[in-house]
Amino acid sequence: MMSNSEKILQLIKQGEGLELEFKEARNRLNRDVFETACAFMNRIGGTILVGVSDKGEIKGIDAQHAAQMKKDFVTAINNPQKISPPAYLSVDEIVLEDKLILRIYVPESSQVHRCNGRIYDRNEDSDLDITDHTNRVATLYQRKQAIFSENKVYPFAGLKDLRADLIEKCRKIAGLWIPGHPWPQMSDMELLQSAQLYQTDHETGKSGVTLAGILLLGQDNLILSVLPFHKTDLILRRIDLDRYDDRDIVSTNLIDSYDRILAFVGKHLSDPFYLEGTNRMSLRDTIFREVASNILIHREYMNAFPAKLIIERGQVKTENASKPHGFGVLQPETFTPFPKNPVIAKFFRQIGRADELGSGMRKMMRYGKAYGGADPELIEDDIFKIIVRYPDTMTYPERPAIVKITDQAQVEAQDEAQVEAQVDIDILRACADGPKSSAEIAEFLGHKQLSGNIRRALPKLRQAGLIEYTIPEKPKSRLQKYRLTAKGRLTEL
Fold first, then answer.
1. What is d(CA 205, CA 158) in angstroms, rounded to the nearest whole number?
2. pTM summary value
3. Rounded distance, CA 316 to CA 355, Å?
4. Which end of the chain is more exposed for a tag (fewer CB within 10 A), N or C?
C-alpha cells in the first residue's frame, strides 16, 4: 500500500495536466493559485501542489510561513469577493525529499465559480479566462445542470413554498454549530441565495428555488409534486423475512428524513459500551450518522429508484440511485471522494449533519469493525450500496417448512387470491401516474373493457382508504375518476 508521499511523487512524475497543477512559492501564495482552483471547480476537479516548479522539481516552501499560507488560502477561498460562490477547500502539508509542500485537493463543483469576477475553465495544463466567450460560458452552465440535477431551477417555487420553521431551525443550528456563522444575520432569501438554493437559470433567465432547496426545506406537497417517487424506505426484516417486522416510509424533507433514519436505527439496533481513551462514545450513532447522510446526500434524485435502509439479521444494507464515478467495492486507501450533490452536502455540513467529504467514510471504516466485527462494505454502481455489520445476539425461530398444496380447490383458491392481489397493485400503480377513470384503469391493465376483477377491486380499494373519487359528491358522474390517497401513496407497489 502506497503512502501519501509516494502517491504525490507518482503524481509529480506524470507532470501537469487537466487535473494537476504545480505552483512554485516560498513564503506566500501566488494570485494565480485561486484562478487554478476556480478552473478545477468549473471543470472536473484536480490537485494543486504548492512548492513544486513547472518542471516538476520539488522546491518546497518556507516551513515557518506554512501556517499563514494555509490560513490565507482558506480565508480567500471562502471570501465571496475573491471566489463566488465561495468554496470550502482544505490544505494538507506533505513532506517530500525533506522539503515541505502544500497539497490542495479541489473537487468538481456543481456551481459555476468566478475568481475576481472572471470565469475560468481548465484546458490541458492551463487555466482559461472564458468570461467573454458567451457560448463557452453557456455550455459550462448547461453541463453543470446536466451533471448535477440538484441545481435544476423551479421558477414557480418561492419562499412561500418552503417551511419557514425549518429555515429558522437550520439558521439557529448553524449559529450554534459554527461560531460566527453568517446565517443568523441573514433574511430567509439571503440564506437561500448564500446556500445556492435559489438560483437563476442562465438558459431561460428565470429565477427560483432549486431542486436542492425544495428537497432540503420544501413543504411535503411541493416535494411530491416535483418528485412523486421521492421516498426513503426504512425496513426491519429479522423475523418475517418475506415481508417486514417494522417499516417507516419517509417522503418528507431531507432534514427531517435524516432524523427519522437515525430514530429508526436507534429503535432497532443496540449501542454497546465503547471507550475511546477515557471517553465513552456511541459507535452506532457515529457509524449510522454517516450512513444516513450518505443515503440523502449522495443520491441521484432524478432516478425513481427508492432509497432503502434494511435492517437484517446481523447486518444493515442500504441502496440508493447514483451516478457512479467508478465501479466495485471502494477501498479507503485508494478512494477519491466525489461530491454527488455538493450543494446539499455543504448545507448538511453547516448544520452538523455531515462531515467533510471523505472523512465520514474513513470514520465509518475506522469504527465499523469495532461495532460489528467486520469492515463495512461500500459498493459503487448505478445503485450505491453500503453493508454494515452489527452485534446481533438475538435467537431466531426456524422458518416453517413449505407445505405443498395438493388439493385442487386449495390451489385454485390460492391462484385466485394472487390474481386479485396483483390487480389491486396494478390499479394503485395506474393511479400513481395521476387520476384515472375506470376505463383508463382497464386500458392501463391491458384490458379493452372492465373485467370482473377490476370491478370488485375498485370499491374494495376505496373502502380501504387507498383510492378515492375525484368527484365524491357525484359518485356516478361520467367524469368520475380515481386517485391515490395519502395512505395509498405510502403503499409498497
1. 16
2. 0.60
3. 21
4. N
Q: What is the residue whose three cell numbers read 477547500?
A: 89
Cell of 77: 477561498
C-alpha cell at 334: 485508494
Query: What are the helix (H) ranges across 251-386?
Result: 254-268, 283-297, 342-350, 359-372
HEC string for 191-245: HHHHCCCEEECCCCCCEEEEHHHHHHHECHHHHHHHCCCCCEEEEECCCCCCCCC
Instruction: At 241, list the grid cell.
Output: 423475512
Q: What is the DSSP string of 83-112?
A: EES-----EEEEEETTEEEEEEEE---SS-
Which residues lie below 8 Å from residue 298, measured CB to CB, with a gap of 6+?
320, 322, 340, 341, 345, 384
pLDDT tens, position by position, 244-294: 899 999 999 999 999 999 999 999 999 988 988 888 999 999 999 999 998
Q: Is 420 strand, coil or helix?
A: helix
Q: What's the average model confidence in pLDDT over 80-100? A: 86
Dist. CA 332–CA 382, nearest whole Å = 20
Cα torsion angle, 443, 446, 450, 456, sign: negative
Angle at 94 between CA 92 and CA 99, to 5 degrees: 140
Domains identified in the chain and CATH numbers: 4-145 (3.30.950.30), 148-226 (no CATH), 232-389 (3.30.565.60), 408-489 (1.10.10.10)
Residue 47, judged by CB atoms within 10 A of its CB (0-12, 13-18, 19+), counts as middle
Cell of 103: 497539497
Closest CA to 364 of 394, 389, 396, 339: 389
What is the pairing mode between strands 46-50 and 20-23?
parallel
Enter the DSSP assignment of 162.
B
